[in-house]
Amino acid sequence: MSNSYNWPVLPASDSKVVTIVVDGVEAKVPEGTNLVEALKTIGIETPHFCYHPDLPVAGNCRQCMVETEGPRGMALAIACYTPVRAGMKVATDKSSENVRKARKAVMEFQLANHPLDCPICDKAGECTLQENYMAVDRQQSRMREEIGKRYKGSPDHRHLDSKGQDRGGKHVDLGPAVVLDEERCILCDRCVRFMRDVAGSEQLYIADRGDHSFISTFPGQPLDHEYDLNVTDVCPVGALTGKHFRFQQRVWLLSKTETIDPTDGLGANIVVEHHDGQAWRIMPRRNPEVNKSWIANSTRLAYRRLSEDRLTSGLFGRSEVPLAQAVSRLGELVRGARKVALVASGHLTVEDNAAILAWAQILGPRAEVFGGSWLWVGAPDGLARSGDPVPNRSGLELLGIPDSLDELRARVGEFEVLVVVGNDLWTANASKAATLEKIPERIALSSWSDATVQASDLAIGIRAWAEVRGTMVNVRGRIQLLNAAPILPSPDLEPAWQVLSTAGKLGWTSELDAFRFAQSRIPSLVGLTYRAIGPQGRILAGAES
Amino acid sequence: MSHCHTKVDQPHASEILPKLETPKVLSKVEELVRRYPVPKAALLPVLWIAQETLGWLPQEAIRWAAAKCKVSPVHAYGVSLFYTMYKKEPTGRFFVQICQNVSCHILGAEGIIAHAEETLGVSSHGGTTEDGLFTLLRVECLGACGNGPVLQINDDFATDAVDGELAMPEGVALTAERFDRIVAWCRKRASELPSEPARDALGGLFETHGHPGAVAASSEPQKQGYAPAPPALGLAATRTESGQVKLAWRAAPESSLLHLETRSGSKDFEVLATIPGKDKDWTGDLVAGTEIRIVAQSGDRRAKPSNVVKVEA
Amino acid sequence: MATLTVTQNFGKGAADLSVYKSLGGYSCLGPKLFDLSQFELIDLVTRSGLRGRGGAGFPTGMKWSFVPRNSPKPVYLVVNADEGEPGTFKDHVLMLEDPHRLIEGMIICGWALGVRSAYIYVRGEFLKAIETLNAALKQAYDAGLLGQNIQGSGYSLDIFVHRGAGAYICGEETALINSLEGYKGQPRLKPPFPAVSGAWASPTCVNNVETLMALPWILENGPAAYQALGTAKSGGTKVFSVSGDVKRPGVYEIPLGTPLLEFLNSPQWCQGVLGTLKGVIPGGSSAPVLTAEESAKANMDYESLASLKSMLGSGAVIAFNDTRSAVGMLASLTRFYAHESCGQCTPCREGTGFADRILKAVVRGEGRDGDLDTMLDLAANFSYTTICPLAIADAWPIENFIGKFRPEFDALLGSNAGHADPRVTSDFRPGAFW
User: Fold this and answer.
1) Last residue of some domain: B158, B175, B192?
2) Residue at a domain's end among C288, C321, C354
3) Which of A189, A208, A209 to mutate to test binding with chain B, by most B CBs within 10 Å of its CB?
4) B-chain residues near A205 (CB < 8 A)
5) Are the beta carbons of B44 and C36 separated by less than 8 Å?
6) CA-to-CA dists, residue B11 to A103, B71, B85, B87, angstroms
7) Terminus-to-terminus CA distance in chain B, angstroms?
8) What's the pLDDT tens digit per position in B174-189?
9) Is residue C252 one of the residues assigned to a domain?
């Protein structure tokens, strides 16, 4: 095997704890893991570039130097490749001048041939080179014009700039989603390892050698993979960036809201990053139990839909009406009906669906709750998708809502009123949904002006997934938190549970009321709070893993 | 050449594959894949064959080699660029390489290189003459420093052209004059032989039974126990302070048991004790004049006896 | 006349099997080898004091003892014939003159370690040596000296030649193994060491050509005789490649411990220095250069050169006289190491090029005060932060050429009228640099 590309041993909750000495002080750390992880558990950050907890170890950046005691005294070693042994003595930059010198030395080498692109580079503000420079170096450059830099790049993209300098590739179109700025690459090899060892498709490689090495696909072949945008996350610098985000926003302006992937039942953990009331990008959140550090491209680009075709008001037929008016009409229609069908949705939170159940309870035998989806279910890809496009199917099952759309179609004649809550049936399967048009009064609650809204007599706009606070349960029985980003296209929009509470006179004022109702239907939720669920979610008791 | 900084026109796969997918080439590839436990290891030799066949390595040939060795195309591409001898663009018929490293440097390499640039009229960084005959390249140490400054024409070392042959005779160092003779030899050869077959890049590949378990290989793995069982070595005896005898020896890690055998007088050796193979010494009471030896055992095979030691008084 | 253990067949046409045999070759293929257990053979080689002849000088018997003899995986022997260290050409000549001795040595080593498949990794520039090796191998196979069940011993060995393609770094053992496996020749992190996990994650022994070629003589004459040829700590003889300003450059096998100046001046060897000796690089370009005074104190063995803060290395001796420029020599070396850096780890990849470009600026007459100290500082920095010793091999020439011949470098700095100006140029304006 080329190099010792071994997966790092990460600390686990049941790792044995051993005592080591760090900077002269005893510390208890997990055994078997590497020093970067071990020092992190006691609050010491080790600057690094090429190490990544979810990628095999390469050990080529040489930034994470620490000193450990060996047969000839304290010697420098890279922390990412040094396993913890009980009793070992470690010196970090806090106590060792050698470590400080070594880290500074490596930092100078990293910057030696790096272009000064910060003013035009998307990575500025979250760039590991900038961070590590501030942490370990802060020295003036010893480079001079006569000495010159050797910029990196493939021979195919080399060019002379306006000063006659030999420059490497700038904004090279690497593939449908990714842009490569070759000069910025620090050859850490993370993208190569990701594509080969995680995505399982070796499309990138470091070609040539020495300081004229460059990152490349096979000439003429684009980088194209459902997970290829993850290389822009693992890239510590701005060499690999996403086309969707290029020059869009400076990252320090972005605020972060932690939430869950709405497009798949695995519930990959994500962050919606927004500024000025608009979502600008989605980034993955690391969750070793769910999606590690990865998200699929379609998840990453899901923020775009938040500003397309939004339904921000009520609709009577084709005419816009204020939301409040539409909501009270909803209440009238439902209360006035002999029999009403309420269709729940696995695309909405547990709280939203709890509201449907709560209203049905008040309405008694006049109301029946149906659930399910006509979307096609694929297979898990082993990375960040389960293949099920419905994110909260497990939540519906726990709430006892049956998978019964076809039954509804069979009994269409019984109902006067149909309320479809956040479930775009007409797009999923128009011919099956057409049967439901036999129900005379059709009402849709939806975030978008979709086909279901077109097929309804009354439509009410609701908040979208990134704008609500609530919970969803993933395919493995893990309950996870969604948080609301302040990116509403209209201030009047409310979450589905709120609309239903108003229309059904439930009297709820926050999603916690909805959650409490859900607890009455789901025993394993009893005793849980949002805080207890936490940002990494929680496996519910009795759930299959 | 080694680090090509110009974009090169790439021939299409349809031009290249017919030249590579010939029985001769394919049988060589099969032999190479047979020699390694995994096909990936045949990559460097297969790239050599492609280069020998085509004269250089176009990208489609790299893709072909990748397929033959079951690696991704980009892996083969990156590997081929790492090594300087894989040509990323065509070279002249006579690839003139002159060493610029330290030993040749002090013996006048720069002077020869300057002379070469002037005579041939091309840059020493991979320039090719207009008639396509010569490509001139500065290279690093070629491993023939005793004859410095060192020059290679294609794969042959040369410091002179003597009796119609390129040669590197002992004690003959390259000079401007000798360089001119070499160039003249090349020109003469080109005019007499418009083309010649490529030199066998693998230096005489012959068919073998291959590596055990490899694709199309027929060799068998090593038989266990081909060598005799390991004996104990260097047996020595010393007296401890308490008057006992301490024995020390070197035994192989694979020894499972060690039989301490003693003999007094003319009797045969008899086992005194059997101890674990890992032991490195033994202390006990032994009468002066006793002879001791150790017979090591590995598994169920006994080794020949160690040296015999006689206990002193 | 000194005893020769490796080069005794030179000039006798020993590349041909019948000639080699008539000179006593392959005499080990019989009871002398087949009656030995693996343990005894390794013990024998250890007692001979044989050390790696490629440059590192690691005791061969000890290296062999690290290879497990009970591994379920196959054991590989990879011969390092990637002779790239500037100044070294002994393996080149050894393979051309006496390839069968190498094969015999490989069979002996293979017997000791249980090797079934062995590879000779020859650098790509040595095509004639590869042809010679392949021809010799074919003869050996045809004569039943290789292949399945050699001469009824129960031991089987296949030897394949693997042609390199131009990369000095492939001389490093783990880079060699990576190159053999079909990757770029980039060194690996250690541990694991090749003896435990090398080629294809299996136990692997990497030995130099000359090291293996010493084995037939050692087996024939016994370890004590070999040890006695050298010094107490450096047993045996060593083959040296001599080039530069000497009357008769070439490949010489001499007993370890021979004084350096005797070696250079003796009529039986290099026959004298041309001109006034200025300095000697004693062990390949990576070895710290010795001044003429230091050379007078040096003996050609591991300990003596180490005590002079240099090294025996690959045994490549480059002598140079006082008409040669130390600056030019160092410039050719910094250019070499920057060209050959594999690019895997940051300090070497960026640092070797950085140091080379600084020296280039100095040579061009654009050097400034502090440039030399910057070079020395960079060299110190990339000495202890890298994966493999290539960067150290660059650092030592930088430190020693500048350290021992400083006036020549300072003179070049002086040739720049603006050498005392601070870092920035006179038309400096922000953004002018990039």
Assistant:
1) B175
2) C321
3) A208
4) 72, 74-75, 77-78
5) no
6) 47, 22, 20, 14
7) 78
8) 999 999 999 999 999 9
9) yes
pLDDT level of residue C432 (50, 70, 90 thresholds): very low
Using the predicted structure, report yes or no on whether residue C343 has a pLDDT greater than 70. Answer: yes
Q: What tokens were used for A308?
A: 């397309």
Which position has the token pair 């063995």? C301
Which of A332, A354, A347, A341 lies closest to A442, judged by CA? Answer: A341
Q: Which of A105, A187, A210 sits opposite C381 (nearest CB)?
A: A105
Residue C84, both tokens: 């790239």
Does the beta carbon of C127 lie under 8 angstroms from any beta carbon of chain A? no
pLDDT level of residue A42 (50, 70, 90 thresholds): very high
A7 interfaces chain B, CB cutoff of 8 Å: no
The one-letter amino acid at C257:
G
The pair of structure tokens assigned to B159 is: 């410091």
Total number of domains constituting chain B: 3
* CATH number for domain A118-125+145-247, candidates 3.40.50.1820, 3.30.70.20, 3.50.50.60, 2.40.110.10: 3.30.70.20
CB contact under 8 A, B212 and C117: yes
CATH number of the domain where residue C369 is located? 1.20.1440.230
Residue B4 domain flag: no
Cα of B33 to nearest chain A Cα, Å: 17
Task: Please give the mean pLDDT across all residues of chain B.
Answer: 93
- Give me the pLDDT at residue A3, please: 53
- Domain identity same for C178 and C138: yes
Model confidence over A417-459: pLDDT tens digits?
A: 999 999 999 999 999 999 999 999 999 999 999 999 999 999 9
Residue-wise pLDDT for C14-29, tens only, equals 999 999 999 999 999 9
Q: Which CATH number belongs to the domain containing residue C283 in this structure?
A: 3.10.20.600
Q: Which structural domain range is residue B113 located in?
A: 94-175
Whether C183 and C297 share a structural domain: no
DSSP A220-264: T-----TTTTHHHHH-SSTTEEEGGGTTT--GGG-EEEEEE-TTS
Q: What is the spatial distance between Cα C420 and Cα B79, in angstroms, rounded to a whole number?
A: 45
Chain C closest CA to B305's CA: distance in Å? 12
Across the interface, of B48, B103, B170, the residue whose CB is closest to C87 is B103
Instruction: Please identify among residues 153-172 of chain A the ones whose CB lies closer than 8 Å to any CB of chain B.
Output: 155-156, 158
**A310-539 belongs to which CATH class?**
alpha beta
Q: CA A19, CA A39: separation in Å to the nearest integer?
A: 12
| Record: contact B3-A221, CB cut-off 8 A | no
Query: Do C380 and C300 reside in the same domain of the chain?
Result: no
Closest alpha carbon to A262 in A233, A239, A282: A282
- Shortest Cα distance from A12 to chain C (angstroms)? 24
Query: Does this model's pTM top 0.90?
Result: yes
Q: Which chains touch B (3 or more CB pairs under 8 A)?
A: A, C
Are C251 and C369 in a shared domain?
no
Pairing assessment for the beta strands B257-263 and B291-298 based on DSSP bridges: antiparallel
**Counting Cβ atoms within 10 Å, is residue B154 exposed (0-12), middle (13-18) or buried (19+)?**
middle
- Is A102 in the C-facing interface, judged by CB distances under 8 Å? yes
Higher pLDDT, C48 or A5: C48
Residue C430: band (very low, low, confident or very high) from pLDDT cuts 50, 70, 90: low
Contact A221 B81 (CB under 8 A): no
Instruction: Choose the final residue of a domain: C183, C203, C226.
Output: C226
Minimum Cα–Cα distance from B219: chain C residue: C148
Q: How many CA atoms lie within 13 A of B43 on its CB side?
A: 31
pLDDT digits (tens, 9 = 90+) for C98-142: 999 999 999 999 999 999 999 999 999 999 999 999 999 999 999
How many separate domains does chain C show?
3
pLDDT at C167: 96
Please indicate, yes or no, whether residues C206 and C88 belong to a single structural domain of this protein: yes
